[in-house]
Amino acid sequence: MTLVESSATQLLAQLNSGHVSAVEVTRAYLDRIERFDPQVKVFLRSDGDAAVAQAADIDRRRSQGKPVGKLAGLPVAVKDLLCSRGELTTCGSRMLENFRAPYDSTVVARLRAADAVFIGRTNLDEFAMGGSNENSAFFPTRNPWDLTRIPGGSSGGAAACVAADMAPLAIGTDTGGSIRQPAGLCGVTGLKPTYGRVSRYGLVAFASSLDQIGPMARSAEDAALLLEVIAGHDERDATSISQAVPQYSQTVSQPLAGLRLGLVREHFGPGLDGEVESAVREAIRVYVSLGAKVVDLSMPHGKYGVATYYIIAPSEASSNLARYDGVHYGYRTDEEPMIEELAEERKQLVAAGRLKEAEQVDNPLVRLYRKSRAEGFGPEVKRRIMLGTYALSAGYYDAYYLKALKVRRLIRGDYDNAFAKVDLIAGPVTSTPAFKIGEKSEDPLAMYLVDLYTVTANLAGVGGISIPCGFSSGGLPIGLQLQAPPLEEERLLRAAHMFQQATDWHTRRPTLVD
Amino acid sequence: MNELYTIIIGLEVHVQLQTQSKLFCGCSTQFGAAPNTQTCPVCIGLPGALPVMNRRAFDLALRSAIALNCDIAPYTKWDRKQYYYPDLPKGFQISQYDLPFSDDGFLAIEDPKVRFEPKKVGIIRVHLEEDAGKSMHDEISGKADSRIDLNRAGTPLLEIVSQPDMRSPLEAKAYLTEIKLLLTYLGVSDCNMQEGSLRVDANVNLHINLPDGHVAKTPIVEIKNMNSFRAVERALAFEADRQYDEWRETGKTIGSSPKQTSGWDDVANVTRPQRYKEESSDYRYFPEPDLAPVTVGDKEIDRIREELGELPADLRARLAATYEISDYDSDVLVNQGPAAVNYFVELATLVKDGKVASNWIQQDVLRTLNERNISIDKFPIPAIGLAELISRVQAGDLDTSRGREIFTEMLATGQTAVQIISARGIARVDDLELIALCNEIVTANPRIVADIKSGKVQAAGNLVGQVKKRNPNVNPGRVREICLEIAEKM
Question: Contact, B292 vs B317, CB < 8 A?
Answer without folding.
Answer: no
